Amino acid sequence: MDRRNIRLLLAYDGGNYHGWQSQTTGTTIQGVVEQKIERIVGEHVRLTASGRTDAGVHAVGQVCNFFTESKISPEELMRGLNSLLPDDISV
Predict the structure, then answer these.
(1) What angle do CA 48, 72, 27 make, to 5 degrees?
(2) Residues 13-62: pLDDT tens digits?
(3) Structure confidence at residue 1 (pLDDT)
(4) Beta strands of 13-83 (E only): which ranges?
(5) Is the separation of the CB atoms in 17 and 55 below 8 Å?
(6) What pTM value is reported for the model?
(7) pLDDT at residue 55, rounded to an integer
(8) Which strands make up the sheet holding 89-90, listed edge to edge?
């Protein structure tokens, strides 16, 4: 099966998060989004971002990507993620 490289454009209010990057303690944007993507595509994914934000920092237009073998369309992925993500994170 062919792997696809999927780009996401995120907006978030970082007030409830310990920044972008996954950590062993605290909830992060990367951790939450990866968890929801994995639920949709049924495989482990690792997001790579164009940059990181610190705890409490907001973002509009945060670019990130991941690789998947899933055939889900970009539109279906976006709708699925927006339905699963908390109100302070959107694709």
Answers:
(1) 40
(2) 999 999 999 988 899 999 999 999 999 999 999 999 988 888 888 999 99
(3) 65
(4) 48-49, 59-68
(5) yes
(6) 0.94
(7) 86
(8) 48-49, 59-68, 4-12, 89-90
| Cα–Cα dist 54/65, whole Å | 19
Produce one character per residue of 68-83: b if its CB has 16 or more CB atoms within 10 Å, e if not. bebebeeeebeebbee
Both tokens assigned to 76? 């279906």
Q: Which residues contact 73 (CB under 8 A, 6 or more apart)?
A: none
The tokens for 29 are 């944007």
Q: What is the 3-state secondary structure (H, E, C) of 19-32?
A: CCCCCCCCCCHHHH
Residues labelled catalytic: 54
